[in-house]
Amino acid sequence: MGGARVAVITGASSGIGEATARQLAARGWHCVLLARRGDRLEQVASEIGGEWELCDVADREQVNEVAARVLAKHPAVGLLLNNAGMPARGSFLEIDPELIERVIDVNYLGGVWCVRAFLPGLQSAARAGSGAVGAHVVNLVSVAGTVAFAPAGAYAASKHAQLAFSRSTAALLRGSGIGVLTVMPGFVETEGFPQHSVLSSRILRRFVVEPEEVATKIVDAVERGKREITVPWFPYRLISIAQVVLPSVLARFADASGYRKGV
Ligand SMILES: NC(=O)c1ccc[n+]([C@@H]2O[C@H](COP(=O)([O-])OP(=O)(O)OC[C@H]3O[C@@H](n4cnc5c(N)ncnc54)[C@H](OP(=O)(O)O)[C@@H]3O)[C@@H](O)[C@H]2O)c1
């Protein structure tokens, strides 16, 4: 790998994480891929010349062990992409209580444990960097972090928490040489989130994008030192703004959307 910058990507075995790892590798990053499905990670890592580690991000001890192994090999980590995440379709009143807990553990706390565990590596990269920002944390949040979508209430709550984590970490690390980028995609067609088949709203289905589009925007935003992006900007940024300025109009729209019965 020579002197390649090192990126750690969680949830890299499919979807947005995999697509971003491929694009980072194409730009010369050495990628360390984390997730739970070893066969998938091995396949992606072998295709992009990276490496992989099994890691359930909800398990704090496991995250600490994996980070210690990765940092022993790569003391400087130039980029941490907190992308691992899971859906929780169904309302707060219907879904299993275990799912309400699990989605918080994975989508919100998973990123918290990863930032804490990889911080020494990010700090090393920041010290070695020549510009104002030598290392990057990228938090893959969601438009669901700004708008409560009732058919996935527990998921939206996990993403609201993750957004608060991301913004507060950005403020905390300002001036440290570690930049924090918050990414808010709208609906993206992936294995865990097969939006074309689950969304009941034909209008919403028209705005589903592919993971490669999100990956391209992430890499571009890292290179430009951006702090928050919504992907795609239209219509999702307007939806986030409407939540703030026209909450009752948005609530009526959200009531009319939802998931197809039986999915
Ligand atoms: N698709 C959308 O519409 C959409 C929109 C906005 C935001 N997002 C967010 O984007 C991120 C990526 O999702 P995606 O759409 O690309 O879905 P995906 O293809 O299902 O990818 C999810 C990734 O997370 C990993 N993962 C799940 N639970 C994990 C755990 N406990 N520990 C470690 N890895 C775990 C999965 O790998 P393993 O199963 O191998 O562990 C997989 O690599 C998530 O945070 C999601 O909330 C998605």
Count of discrete structural domains: 1
Number of strands: 7
Poorly predicted parts: none
> From the coordinates shown, what is the CATH architecture?
3-Layer(aba) Sandwich
Q: Which ions and ligands are bound to the chains?
A: NADP nicotinamide-adenine-dinucleotide phosphate
Strand order of the largest sheet: 3-2-1-4-5-6-7
What is the CATH homologous superfamily assignment? NAD(P)-binding Rossmann-like Domain
| Alpha carbon gap, first and last residue | 44 Å
Order of helices and strands: EHEHEHEHEHEHHHEHH
Major sheet, described briefly? 7 strands, parallel
Count the DSSP helices. 10
Class of secondary structure makeup: alpha/beta
- CATH class membership: Alpha Beta
* β-strand amount: 5-15%
Mean pLDDT score, rounded? Answer: 94
**Spatial shape:** globular
Radius of gyration: 18 Å
CATH topology: Rossmann fold
- What is the percent of helical residues? 40-55%
Q: What report would you give on this structure?
A:
Strands 3-2-1-4-5-6-7 form a seven-stranded parallel sheet, sandwiched between helices. The model has no long low-confidence stretch (mean pLDDT 94). 51% of the residues lie in helices and 14% in strands. It is globular. By secondary structure, the chain is α/β, with parallel strands linked by helices. α9 (233-245) crosses α10. It has helices at 15-26, 38-48, 60-73, 97-128, 153-173, 195-198, 202-205, 211-224, 233-245, 247-256; strands spanning 6-10, 30-35, 51-54, 79-82, 135-140, 178-185, 228-231. It has a single domain (6-256), classed as Rossmann fold, CATH 3.40.50. Bound molecules: NADP nicotinamide-adenine-dinucleotide phosphate (NAP). NADP nicotinamide-adenine-dinucleotide phosphate binds at residues 10-17, 35-37, 40, 55-58, 83-86, 106-107, 140, 142, 185, 187-188, 190-193, 195, 211.
